[in-house]
Amino acid sequence: MWLRTLVLLLPLFSAGSVTAGPDNYVDIARGKALVIAGDCAACHTAEGGQPFAGGLALQTPFGAIMTPNITFDTTTGIGSWSADDFARAMQEGRRPGGGHLYPAFPYPYYTKVERSDLDAIYLYLRALPPVENRVNRNTLPFPFNIRLLMKGWNALFFTSGTFKPDPARSAEFNRGAYLVEGLGHCGACHTPFNAFGANQNDKYLEGNQIDNWTAPNITNDPRVGLGKWSVDDIVQYLKTGQNAFSLASGPMKDAIENSTSEMPVADLKAIAVYLKERGAEGPPASTPLAASDPRMQAGEAIYVDTCAACHVRTGTGVAHLFPKLAGNVVTTQEDPASLIRIVIAGGRAAATEGFPTSPAMPSLGYRLSDKQVADVVTYVRNSWGNAAAPVSEETVRTLRAKVTGAAPGE
Amino acid sequence: MARRLPRKDVVIVGLGWTGSILAYELARTGLDVVALERGPWRDTASDFNIGTAPDELRYAVRHDIFLRPKQETLTMRNNPSQTALPIRKWGSFLPGNGVGGAGLHWNGQTWRFLPDDFRIRSHMIERYGQGILPEGNQIQDWPVSYDELEPHYDRFEQVAGISGKAGNIKGKIQPGGNPFEGARERDYPTPPLKQGYAQSLFTKAATEMGLHPFPRPSANISMAYTNPYGCSMAPCTYCGFCEWFGCANYSKSSPQTCVLPALVREPTFEARTDCEVTKINLSGDGKTATGVTYVDASGEEWEQPGDLVLVCAFSLFNVRLLLLSGIGKPYDPASGKGVVGRNYAYQTGSGALGFFNDAKFNPFAAAGSLGVALDDYNSDNFDHGPHGFVGGASITSAHTNGRPIRYHPTPPGTPTWGSAWKKAVKDNYQRVTNVGAQGSVMSYRNNYLDLDPTYKDPLGRPLMRMTFDYQPNEQKMANWMAERCQEIVKAMGASSTKLNRLGVPWSVVPYQTTHNTGGAVMGNDPNTSVLNRYLQSWDVSNVFVMGASAFPQNAGYNPTGTVGALTYWSLEAILKYLKSPGALVSR
């Protein structure tokens, strides 16, 4: 009995002081779980590089930003930072000397994280082996290389302050809100940007295009959002990378493999409850294109030839391998970027403990013209109960150029 | 001078079916496992794009995923009085190259051998007397029984998702299945493939003849399936690009679809590809393997120490590695002494083509192991007394492909080129079907493998020499089977037939089958076997050898199902061995 009491009390103690010694295993372990939930490694690890040693080029509309080394190397990392320095960076987007960080580092989300959690993250990062890796932190072109500009940006778009639970909601909802709005920074991808690269708070989680992928609407909208997914469907998707509706690919594949699949199911369930209960927003319904439309007829012919062997004539796909297209919200997003780029360049689905296969969609851009891609995507968006705006050849041409580097028209 | 690497718990030679299964099962117990594979890494996502995978010229004609003779070849001859010459272009059989091995390019027929096959010598003598055994034979009982292997067959079938119809569940005969099969604990994990028109004719004709047709067990699977390792497969699309190809649809069971996705997640597993193991190293007394020596892609030589060495290459190359490493005494046919290389066997192929007046067989809608088979003439399921031969064959109506370059059956007497040939191809493409017999090959004193006295590989090591021919017993059996096939295809309604007898002497030129067995056989007597009943070397107890090289002789079936079952059977013994290393059977 005393043992159980001790175990129950541990979390209380663990929320304590950051001055605890480096062997504070409980806080370090908690910090590790938080770092996984925040998927810090995703941005702070270069391709083939040491974990957390930075050097990944983040593509923004303003130019590439190289992510910093957040290991505790004293010269090239954050080894000289105090816990207060670290908390200030996370909550205010400011470096120890007062310099501004760019919001590509999503401090508008991290500001919501509680200090005790930030301290645990600090302890965990400090416990990792320091890696010497100097990163060029000034890669943005003029005028965006003037970090002081961020002062104005912050005044316009940044509100600091930790998460405030809503007493009218359940503890689970609030836990989910804390994770999604804070460390999870889901909105950083899933909320549209304004011209200044800030998320538009009035369109929170309504979908966005990120790195030429569609980050779909994840409000509870029944047509393009999570409306048809149950809480369990969302949990299963985040845990295993797939559910009856979809298989994760693109940037979400990485987020699931590195972060959500490693998170406790209770937290995933809290996220799901929050996403299901916080509200639904989506564009007005479209009417499907008529089957007699020449684009639909051409698209169907291509679909039967090229897609149906795996995705099945009726768009139902094959469980665990080939995503369902009928009723899959990725197909009916306003922004068709993911559909187009997957047809052109292919993709892989997430590999997780539960479903390790990581099936591939082959690239078909080498044998389909822009017009053919537009037609087949239009067909998929308007068949088997799907309805979404047709896709133009021009849209495909533009995206192909971005994805494959091919000159427009080639 | 080889550079020495840090020790591993387990060193695996070859990353095909057996190597990947053992690697996964052992790595997940926490052991440090390294697999050394002489060919390249291959996986479905990066190597087999659906748009380019069905390329007959690249894969079936130019052998893209096969071993190149310049990497390694064999010398061959039909009998010990001849001088063996090197095979400079693979023909009769095609060894694979790279991750997946033969499990990548196979057709997918996944059989269990029959209970009698495992004690064929005793059984034949009991039923017919000693006189039935052919001259010069070295037929021997297996050291395991069907019943002992049953759970391991089952495990392999579950991992591979095999599609089929049970014929005997716990002793109860199941309608529509193979009534001759050994009792199974349960049915196949997925139902049989859909069959074509030829198979419906075959089923009807055979049933009317009193025979017992059933859909053959297939690794081209019929429905979506997730195996016990969490790996997912998709239903076969009947594209007919199986044998010699990688499957782009995740529909053919292979290490790629069934094991590797789970294996590569294991933190204690490492694969080194383009690394050819040249030798298993032994301690001074020759009783313990200390690891292996291998050469990487740049020609650099490395020594990889390890506590346990699992030999998982293709059967022929397992035997050569043992010979080159001095594990076990090489077989000498003159004295009959020695064991390594002994009892090499193969497979017979015979049958009958049927030409139909107005049929449309659509041979292009096919799968590597689509087909209906019957076992009435296999093993000892029929009275051998009047025939004077040992062994049997599975008889099948199948279309494995109707591919454009190589599939063009023509009636006897058709010219081999020119407009008359073209016309015959066009006229017959849809109207021809085959009934084939895949038969057993017994083991004989003069069919064996040893090191060639003359020819060497690029590293200066002797090539292996194959001495093999079909013996009178096999000729008699296979030709009798061809007549049975002809009866059936006539009953199916063929207007004319073409009998395909067994080609003798055995020639290395035309493709026949890659079912090379024996050479490192398992047994209860160390004087006639290389391995004990757990596939453990009699001589070096920390070496286990997987694969069809362990078959004492070959049965009338494709070998992979039995190779898979033996792997799981041996795995159980290896786990026991790891707790208390040493010989699992005392000499």
From TrEMBL, chain B:
Keywords: FAD, Flavoprotein, Oxidoreductase
Full protein name: GMC family oxidoreductase
Domain FAD dependent oxidoreductase: 9-63
Gene3D superfamilies assigned: FAD/NAD(P)-binding domain
Molecular functions (GO terms): flavin adenine dinucleotide binding; oxidoreductase activity, acting on CH-OH group of donors
Domain of life: Bacteria
Domain Glucose-methanol-choline oxidoreductase N-terminal residues, every copy: 236-344
Record-linked Pfam families: DAO, GMC_oxred_C, GMC_oxred_N
Domain Glucose-methanol-choline oxidoreductase C-terminal residue range list: 445-566
Keyword Flavoprotein: yes
Family that this chain belongs to: Belongs to the GMC oxidoreductase family.
